[in-house]
Specification:
This protein is of the alpha+beta class. It contains 24 helices and 25 strands. An eleven-stranded antiparallel sheet has the order 3-4-5-11-10-8-7-6-14-13-12. Strand 21 (379-380) and strand 22 (387-389) form a beta hairpin. Helix 7 crosses helix 13. The protein is elongated, with a radius of gyration of 31 Å. The relative contact order is 0.07.
Length: 829
């Protein structure tokens, strides 16, 4: 399963085996059943011979036919497994259906894996199946691959009886009422122990292709142990387990290409005849097959269907449906009509067996959670990358997050935010944007943070362009709202919100368009390569370059118009000043406290830091475009030195001077008695940390080594920053340093002292940092005589003292060199 989110960095996700710090409690004593050996896990005594069928499946049994025959006998659950399905692979999906308050959330995934049932004499083994390494069975190396990829036995069951057509009957109760690490919900509630006495099967239903089981499981965390989700004591969880039969013939896979942003199912294939272990990656995508192949656009045989959780507040349902079906035009470009549809969940009357936890259904789940997030995971077949199911998790407080973002980023451009709360129509549009983004993940798409830098900067303010193209080429970027546009641009508020863009439609076409003339994944490669090269002529079809993270100034999250971050950030700061002037009115309902004002002002400060750090990324930056063999040009190109130096000059004027809206007394005196100095210092320190990072200095040194005449260079950069931060010292005339500037200068001193004292640095960062401190010390020696007031003189003396202690290890031994570094406040993304 791939797990992604509106705030979260994407990771390949599956539930690992959880180390059990305490053994599970013993099962409650019960009368032994003839023919049953020692319970469960490998290592128990072998089972004795099966008993007659009617002595095991008695008249009291409640039987549900389906892919397996599922029998209930009191508290016991038995499976009757058709012989033809032994050895077939199933997808096992675990989910938290209900939980104790404070111990996770209903609808929370707990992992997925492939399993198969295998009979060994009078035992049935449940095995976990892995496709991490593969080889064709016709190759000699397949024997070694099989020996290195032995399927783990998760549990063993004695055969209780044998049914029709030699179908073994097994008691699987313990699979759901003991702590099986591979399926357990214990990790979700962060508990230590499992209580068998308070765990039991609630429900078991069999369908033609799947079995659904729900079990109450109770966990405990002792008062002296780690907290379970922030709590101690017991947590009862209703776990839902779906076991779905996989297609006997896997979907034909499509090879992954780094130029197009898809998640992938990865295998190491030892059977390809290459002179190394060959890594094969297949894009994750749904199995879409045309009803009428060869006749142009067609409906799919089986469309992608998302159900809306019946727990969703009804006013948001139409917007969530629109956000899901917004992807239909993208699939039309791939040759499919109505490929993705949204439906209401059936009522209990219409379908009493329908469940949002059922792995046959993809559902937008609404979670009663204060977490400000939404995530769009999907479950895929590792054999082919086929997406089998996806549940989007909508945490209730994602509404608060998008409200804050919209007010801070688009407030001056939309009159609807002048008084909170936002109107339902606007909130619905914001939720529609979120679900569209998350659906993109469930279709296989990764984040594309590069997208927002690929439009010309001037177009981000062009009403005609925005109406047709949007302000970012991809809904999969973390490009929230258009904070670059100005009130005088008269942008339609509908065009301030991101939507599916040209990259998204192109990427869907690349992955989902059938290539009927190709009979294998390798045969598709020339066509896929030709499509990927369309990026050369159309920049906004490009995807983030693998390996460029942190170096490409166009590959930034939360950025708009980062084709020219200096210009765009300057415009963004103008809007932030306007937002500050709106906050008192927007949050000023009579009788309310100032919590909203406090929250939104903190978001405003965080947005200011984000935008400043889009500019820091230019320094030592490298622009990139992923290219494959045969494409002209370089993958990585150093940002020109004049652009890097202009970025430092911008920061000197904008980040290292205090904007008036950050210290507006009409706001600050309503939310805090003191703290403005610390708030500004913390924000500026975050910018300094980014600007003076060792990795940036290393890149500057390397760029200068490669191009001594043309590069900006680390020494020139450090000199520019020092002179900007200490401009009072380098300017002629009296030296007077304000309280905000003193704080900023102390922050610079702390950062360089940390770098100079680092024993881990293996590059030039330590030497450059120490050299800057020595240069400043020499300049302060002469500047002290020009101090215009006592506070400034004391400040300069103290700085020199701190420099001496930072550079002299024997002086540092007596105690801490500098005050503790302030903690950075939390923020979006």
């Amino acid at each position: 399963m791939q797990r992604t989110g509106w705030l979260m960095v994407l990771v390949l996700w599956a539930v690992p085996a959880v180390a059990q710090t305490e053994p599970p409690a013993p099962a409650p004593a019960q009368e032994p059943v003839a023919g049953e050996g020692v319970a469960g896990r490998p290592g128990g005594d072998p089972a004795t011979s099966p008993r007659p069928y009617d002595r095991v499946i008695t008249k009291e049994a409640r039987t549900d036919p389906g892919v397996f025959q599922v029998h209930r006998l009191g508290d016991r659950l038995l499976y009757e497994i058709p012989k033809a399905l032994l050895g077939r692979e199933f997808l096992w999906v675990s989910q938290v259906a209900r939980t104790t308050l404070g111990a996770g959330y209903g609808g929370q995934p707990a992992g997925s894996r492939l399993v198969k049932w295998e009979r060994r004499g009078d035992r049935v083994l449940l095995r976990s199946v892995s496709y991490a390494i593969v080889a064709s069975p016709t190759t000699a190396v397949s024997r070694a691959v099989a020996a290195a990829n032995y399927d783990t036995i998760l549990m063993a069951f004695p055969v209780q009886a044998v049914g029709k057509d030699d179908a073994p009957v097994i008691d699987v109760t313990r699979l759901f009422t003991t702590d099986v690490p591979e399926f357990s919900g214990r990790q979700q509630v962060r508990a230590r122990t499992f209580d068998v006495a308070r765990s039991f099967v609630e429900r078991a239903v069999s369908y033609p292709e799947n079995v659904e089981v729900e079990a109450t499981q109770t966990f405990s965390t002792p008062a002296d142990g780690p907290p379970a989700g922030g709590r101690t004591g017991s947590s009862s969880v209703l776990m839902h387990y779906s076991m779905v039969l996989l297609p006997e013939t896997p979907m034909s896979p499509r090879l992954h290409d780094d130029r197009v942003g898809y998640f992938s199912a990865e295998q190491i294939d030892y059977g390809l005849g290459a002179q190394r272990a060959e890594r094969r990656r297949y894009v994750t995508r749904w199995r879409l097959e045309k009803k009428t192949p060869g006749q142009g656009p067609s409906e799919p045989v089986k469309p992608i269907v998302f159900y809306i959780d019946p727990a969703t507040p009804p006013q948001w349902i139409p917007y969530l449906k629109k956000g899901i079906e917004a992807w239909q035009p993208a699939f039309e470009a791939a040759g499919f009509v109505r490929a993705i549809v949204a439906r209401d969940a059936p009522s209990q009357t219409d379908d009493p067996e329908w469940s949002p936890e059922d792995a046959r259904y993809s559902v937008v789940r609404w979670l009663p959670s204060t977490v400000e997030n939404a995530v769009g995971p999907h479950v895929r077949d590792p054999r082919s990358g086929e997406i089998l199911e996806a549940d989007i998790q909508f945490h209730h407080n994602v509404m608060n997050l998008v409200r804050d973002w919209y007010v801070v980023q688009a407030g001056p451009l939309d009159s609807r935010v002048r008084q909170l709360p936002l109107p339902d129509t606007l909130m619905g549009e914001l939720l529609q944007m979120v679900v569209t983004h998350e659906v993109g993940h469930t279709l296989g798409l990764q984040h594309n943070m590069k997208a927002s830098s690929l439009y010309p900067a001037a177009k981000v303010r062009d009403p005609a362009w925005l109406k047709q193209m949007g302000h970012t080429p991809s809904i999969m970027d973390y490009a929230r709202f258009n904070y670059v546009a100005q009130p005088e641009d008269h942008i339609d508020p509908a065009d301030l919100i991101p939507r599916i863009g040209p990259y998204d439609s192109w990427a869907i076409r690349w992955a989902y368009t059938p290539i009927p003339e190709s009979t294998s994944p390798d045969a598709e490669r020339p066509t896929l390569d030709r499509w990927a090269r369309e990026q050369d002529a159309t920049p906004w079809l490009r995807f983030s370059t693998p390996g460029a993270g942190g170096t490409d100034p166009g590959d930034q999250s939360e950025a708009i118009g980062d084709d020219d971050a200096v210009v765009s950030t300057g415009l963004g700061v103008k809007n932030l000043s306007r937002v500050a002037s709106l906050l008192l009115t927007a949050t000023g309902r009579p009788g309310d406290d100032y919590d909203d004002l406090d929250e939104l002002f903190s978001r405003l400060v965080g947005q200011w830091v984000l935008e400043m750090n889009h500019v820091t990324s230019l320094v030592g930056g490298v622009t990139s475009q992923q290219k494959h063999v045969g494409q002209a040009g370089l993958t990585f190109t150093v940002v020109p030195s004049e652009r890097q130096q202009a970025a430092v000059q911008f920061l000197a004027a904008q980040a290292f001077e205090v904007p008036s809206f950050l210290i507006a007394p009409e706001i600050l005196r309503r939310i805090e008695p003191t703290g403005a100095l610390a708030r500004v210092r913390t924000a500026q320190r975050r910018v300094l940390d980014a600007l003076l990072s060792p990795a940036r200095l290393t890149r500057l040194v390397e760029q200068e080594t490669a191009d001594p005449a043309g590069a900006y260079g680390a020494v020139r950069f450090m000199d520019d920053v020092r002179r900007a931060l200490w401009r009072e010292v380098y300017a002629p005339g009296p030296v007077r340093v304000s309280a905000y500037r003193r704080n900023l200068q102390r922050a610079w001193l702390e950062v360089l002292a940390e770098r100079a004292a680092s024993s881990r640095s293996a590059d030039d960062a330590r030497a450059l940092s120490a050299g800057e401190l020595r240069l400043l010390d020499a300049d302060l020696r002469t500047a002290r005589a020009r101090a215009a007031d006592r506070v400034t003189r004391h400040h300069l003396d103290d700085v020199r003292s701190q420099i001496a202690r930072a550079l002299d290890p024997s002086a540092r031994a007596g105690g801490p060199v500098l005050v503790a570094r302030p903690a950075a406040p939390g923020g979006p993304g």
